[in-house]
Amino acid sequence: MDEAPGKKRMKEPVQKAWIWWVLAALVVFNAPWYLPEGMIEPYIFGIPAWVLLVLFLSVLLSAFLHWVARSQWDILEDEEEAAFAEERRRKAEEAGR
């Protein structure tokens, strides 16, 4: 696939299999189906351990998605906005003539 010189290539995390595997694992293990039925104990600071586990995995899922969006996905937003502003400026100049 040939690209114009000086043009950045957009990164797509959807094409990285390891991201899907980590995401699937975090979603699957976020529901405590793998713990014994009716498990209430042990308590940690008065909260059942499974609740803390679900909260921890939820925060981990959010952090992972944030990291993927910030570091693995280059959406070229600044360049697109600059190009849009330039196009708008050019149209305004043409309309003013």
UniProtKB/TrEMBL annotation:
<protein>
    <recommendedName>
        <fullName>DUF3311 domain-containing protein</fullName>
    </recommendedName>
</protein>
<feature type="transmembrane region" description="Helical">
    <location>
        <begin position="17"/>
        <end position="35"/>
    </location>
</feature>
<keyword id="KW-0812">Transmembrane</keyword>
<keyword id="KW-1133">Transmembrane helix</keyword>
<feature type="transmembrane region" description="Helical">
    <location>
        <begin position="47"/>
        <end position="69"/>
    </location>
</feature>
<keyword id="KW-0472">Membrane</keyword>
